[in-house]
Amino acid sequence: MPKVVGDSSKVYTPRRSSKPLTEVHDFQLNVDRRSQKHQEISVKKSEREKRMEAEKLAEEQRRVEEEAREVRNMRRSMVSISFLSYACASLLSLLPSPSMLVLSPSLPTSWHSLDNARP
């Protein structure tokens, strides 16, 4: 049980302070600063990723176009080669047999003379 004091002068009573009350101004918590910095870093990172993705797509598109160009050129050259081989085969079929190319006194010595020698 608490003691009851009869004299009120012996009881503690706080005095009012002569200092002014504390004024609260704008303040920033470290959590807020870190959050803002983290958000800025995230934005920069996403921009960098978008830029890298765009560069990657452009490089891929350039590579596909280059491959298509190479395929076109290769096909053109193959068509040219096949056409030339076909043309050569056609021309070779028109030539007389090798036995006729052997020069002998009885055979003419030029194609012109071959044309004239036929009856």
Describe this structure in words.
This protein has helices at residues 30-94, 98-101, 111-117. Helix content is 64%, strand content 0%. It is built from three helices and no strands. By secondary structure, it is mainly alpha-helical. The protein has a domain at 30-92. It is rod-shaped and about 150 Å long. The protein starts with 29 loop residues before the first helix and ends with a helix. The model has no long low-confidence stretch (mean pLDDT 78).
Radius of gyration: 52 Å
Strand content: under 5%
Average pLDDT, rounded to a whole number, is 78
The structure class reads mainly alpha
* Major sheet description: none
Rounded to the nearest angstrom, the distance between the terminal CA atoms is: 156 Å
Helicity level: 55-70%
- What's the quaternary structure here? single chain
**What is the H-and-E element order?**
HHH
Secondary structure tally: strands: 0
> Total number of helical segments?
3
Report low-confidence residues grouped into runs of 5 or more: none
> Judging from the principal axes of the Cα atoms, what is the shape?
rod-shaped
Quick summary of this structure?
The chain is 64% helix and 0% strand. It has 119 residues and is an all-alpha fold.
